[in-house]
Amino acid sequence: MSQEPLIKAEQRRPDWAALVIAAILIAIAGVIFFDAARLREVTGYSPVGPATVPHWIAIGLVLLAIWTIIAAFRGDFPEREKQEIKPVVWVIGGLAAQMLLLNTAGFSIATGILFAATAAGFGKRKIWFSLPIGIVLCLVVWLIFAGLLQLSLPAGPLERLFQ
Amino acid sequence: MSTFEFLMQGVVVAMQPMNLLYALIGVTLGTAVGVLPGIGPALTVALLLPVTYQLDPAGSLIMFAGIYYGGMYGGSTTSILLNTPGESASIVTALEGNKMARAGRGGPALATAAIGSFVAGLIATVGLAFIAPYIVKLALVFGPCEYFALMVLAFITVSSAFGDSTLRGLTSLFIGLALSLIGIDQLTGQTRLAFGVPDLLDGVEVTTLAVAMFAIGETLFIAAHGSFGPDKVEAVKGSIWMSANDWARSWKPWLRGTAIGFPIGAMPAGGAEIGTFLSYATEKRLTKHPEEFGNGAIEGVAGPEAANNASAAGTLVPLLTLGLPTTATAAIMLAGFQQYGLQPGPLLFATNPQLVWGLIASLLIANFMLLVLNLPLIGLWVRLLTIPKPWLYAGILVFATLGTIGANPSVFELGMLLAFGVMGYIMRVLGYPIAPVVVGLILGPLAEQQLRRALAISQGDFTVLFTSPIAAVLLAIAALALIVPLILRARGRGEVLSQMAANED
């Protein structure tokens, strides 16, 4: 029992998640360098052109990545709580479905699906119950925001009934 | 014209019936959204920004002012009745306020928070009105060097001076700065990091990023915790009014909290939440009832709540006079201004005085409205607190995406919303702060512009940044703000700093 914390500390060194972050930071820096190389230097009076600040930010990112790697090996990152993946997948799935359906199915149906998927992620799995609620709620929202406040929310088959 | 006359003119603008209506809608929506658990002032403002899109600039900024103050009020109600210290400014309120609610004194706790916020908001808004013209005068002598130094200072204090890690704060900031590069370079018109995608030419929208990271990131984070049982909402028992004794014990903390909070918020540096902690510590030292601290002392609610509201009004000083946002909330408000092609700063006071003073006056009016609305409607706000989590977060996501769709109904924008939401979630899991990303995104291009102007004037001589005395002092303070916390943390004294973290969501 008393050895458990020790083992944990061993496992956390190096911290792989932190190393991944460092890799991502270096990748972002690489993209910035690549893009900045393409920019024409219109310097004029100043040696500072459109590519200078991107270079600085990229260098900063590389330095932070090195620092992150050091921190990862020293185990400086805080303990992370266990994450449940299933609810996260439900919510992300709902957002993705809304994104893909928005222009064909219209605001109410697409966002209603997001509503039901999020509720499902939080434990309300009765889709046959939450989906109609979501769609009706979103239709009301659509009527208020597209009708009264004149926001341009995409209309689908349901919304056309009210136009 | 004197400040007083300007302010009176502003009151005339704000008292027009339509503007009063906008203010009323603003405070009501702001309180209703701000009261929802897990939604702080920054997210309230970001979520409700689209509601104001169709109004004229004056009307929408007035509604905005109401939303801002309403969101602050709503947040304090949540932390008293529901012990969810999600927002650092409310941690302190929750310390004593939630204890009071459990002891059946929730009514007086809410009342002292509401009246304290009102007193603080009133004094601080008047303070804002009287200080702003002087800072505007000062700001007019600022050149690009000084502005750049000021922004560097804001970057450092927002990202690394507070919070529990310099590394993670700076990383968040640089992610924000990297995102800010996307789009058209303002000085040469060349596109950067857009990769031929037309949607990226205008850059990343601050509201999209803020809503994604605060609303979607937070929802994913809560969902991943896996426990969706209802939180315990303390019922408001007994009278909601304060007794004579409560009044006697509250008025001094209100004034002290205001005196502590306003200057801290008004400083052109981040970390506006420090005021609440300082106020709590002060009240604890000065109280005649030390035994009650930790068990529901009314001073511990009155002082920090006043400090919180005073520093919220204080952050409007650098925002309006210098165009410098020092909190995520202020960054989103700056985005709201830019929506109408208005750039806050000394020039706005000269070119658009009616708008600025109308805004300041409507803050005063919103403050009055909140006092009138808040206590009688407390039953309604409690009702909102008891919405079960599945419906609550489903609703939050509907409104979060509604804002983005309303601003730009494109699949690409929703894709960015999703991507940044996932990014916000991962950052939360790994302990990275969110506010520096938002501030970096909005302030990055402004800082770059000032830097390049400064260097163009000096014909490329970098020493110009250090030869201006004001700029040199500001940069020296920024360097101290970076180095001192590093030393403190290395010596194991970092807890104080992490408690002061400005974690608003």
Automatic annotation (TrEMBL), chain A:
InterPro entries: DUF1468. Residues 20-154 form the DUF1468 domain. The keyword Transmembrane helix applies. It comes from the Bacteria. Keywords: Membrane, Transmembrane, Transmembrane helix. The chain crosses the membrane at residues 16-34, 54-75, 87-115, 127-151. This is Tripartite tricarboxylate transporter TctB family protein. It comes from Rhizobium lemnae.
UniProtKB/TrEMBL annotation, chain B:
Pfam families: TctA. It comes from the Bacteria. Signal peptide: none annotated. The chain crosses the membrane at residues 20-49, 61-82, 109-131, 138-161, 167-184, 316-335, 355-379, 391-411, 417-443, 464-488. InterPro entries: DUF112_TM. Residues 20-438 form the DUF112 domain. Keywords: Membrane, Transmembrane, Transmembrane helix. PANTHER family: TRICARBOXYLIC TRANSPORT PROTEIN. This is Tripartite tricarboxylate transporter permease. It comes from Rhizobium lemnae.
